[in-house]
Design brief:
By secondary structure, the protein is mainly alpha-helical. The protein has six helices and no strands.
């Protein structure tokens, strides 16, 4: 069963967004994430704490990609839930690390954290609804 037939066959919660909403939200979020990284880089490149902020950013971005591989690639809502929980923590860490460099950079990541919180709820609901 391909991912194109696996995901549509899953039972989803009533609050699942329509198909076109998710790509539109991610387009907006990736734009905000890119601006956030630019602002943190511009404000803090020469500061010693920039390295920790950059590591946190790269880690959260890697886990963002890893979630798709876990959830869709492995077809495992359980693996996806574990990854998205770690992603949530890494986004929070990135916000914490960006804040001293640029408050604006940190605040631009808040919608991303909110969306990943919602995505985690969706992921959990799919896990529960599809034992």
């Amino acid at each position: 069963m391909s991912v194109y037939s696996w995901y549509p066959a899953l039972v989803k919660p009533w609050f699942t967004p329509p198909d076109g909403v998710i790509p539109a939200v991610w387009t907006l979020l990736f734009t905000l994430i890119g601006i956030s990284l630019f602002l943190a880089w511009r404000a803090g490149l020469t500061l010693p704490q920039f390295r920790g902020a950059a590591y946190a950013f790269v880690a959260q971005f890697a886990f963002n990609i890893l979630w798709s591989a876990a959830f869709f690639g492995l077809r495992s809502p359980l693996a996806g839930l574990v990854v998205i929980a770690l992603l949530w923590i890494l986004i929070l860490l990135t916000i914490y690390r960006f804040y001293p460099l640029s408050k604006e950079a940190a605040l631009l990541l808040v919608p991303y954290l909110a969306w990943v919180s919602f995505a985690a709820l969706l992921n959990y609901s799919i896990l529960v609804l599809n034992p």
